[in-house]
Design brief:
Layout (H helix, E strand, L loop, with lengths): L18 H15 L4 H8 L3 E10 L5 E12 L5 E8 L4 H17 L5 E8 L7 H15 L8 E5 L5 H15 L20 H20 L7 E5 L5 H10 L3 E6 L3 E4 L6 H11 L9 E4 L11 E4 L18 E3 L8 H9 L3 E3 L1 H4 L2 H15 L5 H26 L3 H20 L4
Parallel strand pairs: 3-4, 3-5, 6-7, 6-10, 10-11, 11-12
Antiparallel strand pairs: 1-2, 2-4, 7-8, 8-9
Bound molecules: glutamic acid.
Glutamic acid binds next to strand 3 and helix 11.
Length: 429
């Protein structure tokens, strides 16, 4: 992502804010500890395939606009590529590359049989009508469909895409292959092959890893104040579930500002307000902080950045007051930010573990679509819990064994699994 955009602290260096550099740095630390040979390192560091497409779209006023989109497939050693598609004005290839690699490591940490991929389209969905969004989504699908498919690459929602976007992708793909192919994409509406529990899965996974990490820190929900950056599918659902578990959620934010109430927010009422007005602003039982300036530095025990990349950096990490950071977003902490948090003894549950609940239930959705047999919400939630709890403890054990932080622990688990499979399969020539 470029420097100095609306959501990013100015002054952090360009390298620090480049998500692909961050990913490569984290990868390098773990690869050293695993004593990975140079060749395997090269293979696992680079994306396997990158596609850039130009997409003409007929706008509502009759003009033609050309959009740019990407799909990056990082690695498919362990199965088809898996990962979301985001629509945002500042999408760029380095960001999509990093996000694709993070998906490889994420799928490996929770041990589901997928590799990693990611897609992005440069656009501002707020300035597009529903019809324009539909035409753009269908054109993007048609442009990348040679590399998609239930056994090749299976997209899902990400920033500014949702169940409706996935329905359009499924339909466009199905019309081309001449049969309804639900398993080509996950995060669909339930009526067309979506899974119960998928919509809440990322937030539920965040709640579950908070619970496991809190046990390690010897804290109970009642004496834990929580600040959540974001209020969407990850932050909003996560905050609601944490509130239900008895945590005191003192702040949540959207792209315009943050709510703050040191006595705790009534999260169901906040979410009702947000659904009604589309913004947090105007909710009466809390203070409103415009632009969320300083939200991450509010007094709390648990901080959940669940918005976007590069939020905890060399510029603000020394002012974070939490004891525990759980990364709901992908890449919210830069490498330098992590070093500062480490030096201050703040525990960080990394993105590739903390937000893996979404892709885990995506896996369940893909399995159900292929079986044509659908599970109850209770089954989905209890299988998700098993996966998240097991993954958390395998990462914590690995971190303890090597005396490293949880992020490096997660990379060690993930890279080791992918490297083993890579060696088993051998090099095709
Ligand atoms: N976009 C989500 C993520 O970053 C979900 C990916 C998926 O379900 O494939 O993990």
């Amino acid at each position: 992502m470029s420097e100095g955009t609306k959501n990013q602290p100015a002054n952090a260096s360009r390298d620090e804010l480049n998500p692909f550099h961050s990913m490569a740095h984290q990868f390098g630390l773990a690869a050293d500890l695993l004593e990975l040979d140079e060749g395997t390192r090269d293979v696992l560091r680079q994306p396997d395939r990158e596609l850039t497409v130009s997409m003409p779209v007929m706008m509502d006023d009759g003009t033609i606009e050309v959009f740019t989109g990407y799909r990056v497939q990082h690695n498919f050693s362990r199965g088809p590529c898996k990962g979301g598609i985001r629509f945002a004005p500042d999408v760029n290839l380095d960001e999509v590359r990093a996000l694709a690699a993070w998906m490889t490591w994420k799928c490996s940490v929770v041990d589901i049989p997928f590799g990693g991929g990611k897609g992005g389209v440069i656009c501002d969905p707020r300035n597009l009508s529903q019809g324009e969004l539909e035409r753009l989504t269908r054109r993007y699908t048609a442009s990348i469909m040679d590399i998609l498919g239930p056994d090749r690459d299976v997209p899902a929602p990400d920033m500014n895409t949702n169940e409706q976007t996935m329905a359009w992708i499924m339909d466009t793909y199905s019309m081309h292959v001449r049969r309804t192919t639900t398993a080509v994409v996950t995060g669909k509406p339930i009526a067309i092959g979506g899974s119960k529990g998928r919509r809440e899965a990322t937030g539920r996974g965040v709640m579950l890893v908070c619970r496991e990490a809190m046990k390690k820190l010897g804290r109970s929900p009642e004496d834990t104040r929580v600040v959540v950056q974001g209020c969407g599918n990850v932050g909003g659902v996560g905050a609601l579930l944490l509130h239900r578990e008895g945590y005191k959620v003192v702040s949540v934010s959207d792209m315009y500002g943050a709510l703050y109430n040191p006595d705790g927010l009534d999260m169901p009422a906040v979410m009702d307000h947000l659904r009604g007005s589309g913004r947090l602003e105007g909710y009466s039982s809390a203070d409103y902080i415009v632009n969320s300036e300083g939200q991450l530095e509010l007094p709390c025990e648990l901080l959940i950045p669940a918005a976007t990349e590069n939020q905890i950096t060399s510029k603000n990490a020394d002012r974070i007051q939490a004891e525990l950071v759980v990364e709901g977003a992908n890449g919210p902490t830069t490498s330098r930010g992590q070093e500062i948090l480490d030096s201050r003894g703040i525990m960080v549950v990394p993105d590739i573990l903390a937000n893996a609940g979404g892709v885990t239930v995506s896996y369940f959705e893909w399995v159900q679509d292929r079986m044509g047999y659908f599970w109850t919400e209770e089954i989905v939630n209890s299988r998700l819990e098993q996966v998240m709890v097991r993954a958390f403890h395998s990462v914590a054990d690995m971190a303890e064994k090597h005396n490293v932080n949880l992020r490096t622990g997660a990379y060690l688990v993930a890279i080791d699994r992918v490297a083993r499979v890579y060696r088993m399969r051998g090099v095709f020539a």
